[in-house]
Amino acid sequence: MARTQESPAPKPDYLDYFGLTDQPFARLGDPACIFPAEQYGLLMSHLASATAETDCLVVLQGNDGSGKTTLLNAYLSELGDETFFATIDNNCRTANDFYGTFLTQLGFKDITGTLKELRRITERFLQHQASRGNTVLLVIDNVQTVRAVVLEQLRHVAEVTYRGRRALSAVIAGNSDLTRVLESPAMSQLNFRSHVDFHIRMFDERETAEYVCHRLAQAGVGNVQFDAGALDLVHRFTGGCPAPVNELCHALLMAACDEDSPSISEHMVRTVASNLDLLPHVVPPHRRRRRSSDNERISPRATSSRPARDIPAPEKDYTIAELKEALDELRAALRRSESDRKAMVAKLKKEQRALNRALADVNKGKAEYAKLEETCNALQASITELER
Description:
Strand order of the largest sheet: 2-3-6-1-7-11
Strand content: 5-15%
Number of strands: 12
Shape: flat
Mean pLDDT: 83
CATH superfamily of the largest domain: P-loop containing nucleotide triphosphate hydrolases
Largest sheet: 6 strands, mixed
Order of helices and strands: HHEHEHHEHEEEHEHEHHEHEEEH
Helix content: 40-55%
Low-confidence stretches: 2-7, 285-295, 299-317
CATH topology of the largest domain: Rossmann fold
Number of helices: 12
């Protein structure tokens, strides 16, 4: 995650054709142009809370292309110079790189020394800022690509406390591998006073259409038109993920310009999506309507006036490949279940045979006993007869 903006890309030919002033689906440079989704506002409030006070952890998870880095950059760009924050990514290769990057972004110059010395400098700085009521925010983006030795340093700085509270707050962002990283030895001991898990869900059909219209409006509106059903297909081929939506819509505008078409049809969406190797997302039937609050799961450690509660994770759109993989796993599980059933039946039959043998032995023993008892009675009768 960088603090500097990338150099602008060459402007495509379709800008003049559609009367647009800027490229609508390029990477955002102005944070004010971000689509005002309700879930984004909720995320910003959590980030603001982590910046306002220490000992807070925000875990931000979302699919690749869902806009995590864009949202974090937008939030950080709005922070004033009086706010202390540092961003760490996979450019840090060693523990010394971590502290060098961390301290340099916080205003230190010419930071050198041993690992022990760098840790000591960081500890004193954090405690000093905490004593003055200042919050230091550490942001680690794309955590799944960061080396374990670097992540371990987060545990060290998180152990720095002042008057019983951690002296910094942290934001950890990553894709679906984030859960695996958080369960690793280097991260599993992170127990902040306030802990918020936030999952960025994909846009639904309505939000996808609103997102496309928003990006076009930010680029000067122009005269871009989508035929009925075209935007629904955009959602179907992208799953509502912003990055694929941007890629597909950019390609659609180029195709419409090349074909001298004033509007984008369903056929054009299907053709361009096929050229981009985009598969339609399959949505599970009868799914519950998702709400913006479905993204948030607040840990019981969070200090809130409302009781902590577990909110269902966002529902997911599945591709055909994912459904096939799930079907293969289900078939394998059924085969294992059938194998276990057969083994259990064989075991029961074996035990039944043993039980039958035991019962036969018992019955044989009873017959022999009855025969012995009959013989004993006969002998007793003979003795009685002789005594007479």
